[in-house]
């Protein structure tokens, strides 16, 4: 089991490298509009906020259970 953990840790950088190469080699797409963050509270002092919008990274699907609304795919990360 320890070997599986080591293999997983070593495979993570490779995954990110492949993801980077896949996204940079893809055809250019339109710019993603800036998100309106007024509904979210401002981070307190000494914290930073990153907002990740995933729809541009996810393949299109015809599954009605998967939302195509970018607001449904926002992830907010506040680090302090």
Task: Describe the structure in brief.
With 80 residues, the protein is an alpha+beta fold. It has one domain.
- Overall pLDDT: 63
Main sheet summary: 2 strands, antiparallel
Structural class: alpha+beta
Fraction in helix: 25-40%
Distance between the termini: 34 Å
How many structural units, i.e. domains?
A: 1
Q: Helix-strand pattern, N to C?
A: HEE
DSSP strand content: 15-25%
The best one-word shape is flat
Low-confidence stretches: 1-9
Q: Compute the number of strand runs.
A: 2
**Rg for CA atoms:** 17 Å
Side by side, the strands of the main sheet go 1-2
Please provide a written account of the structure.
- With 80 residues, this protein is an alpha+beta fold.
- It has one domain (2-79).
- Helices cover 29% and strands 15% of the residues.
- The protein has one helix at 2-24, and strands spanning 48-53, 74-79.
- It has a two-stranded antiparallel ribbon with strand order 1-2.
- The protein is flat.
- The model is unreliable at 1-9 (pLDDT under 50).
Please describe the structure with a list of short key phrases separated by commas or semicolons.
80 residues; alpha+beta; 15% strand
SSE map:
Elements lengths: L1 H23 L23 E6 L20 E6 L1
Antiparallel strand pairs: 1-2
């Amino acid at each position: 089991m320890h070997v599986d953990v080591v293999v997983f840790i070593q495979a993570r950088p490779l995954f990110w490298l492949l993801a980077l190469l896949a996204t940079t080699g893809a055809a250019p797409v339109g710019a993603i509009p800036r998100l309106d963050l007024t509904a979210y509270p401002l981070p307190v002092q000494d914290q930073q906020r990153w907002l990740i919008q995933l729809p541009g990274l996810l393949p299109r699907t015809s599954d009605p259970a998967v939302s195509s609304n970018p607001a449904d795919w926002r992830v907010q990360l506040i680090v302090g």
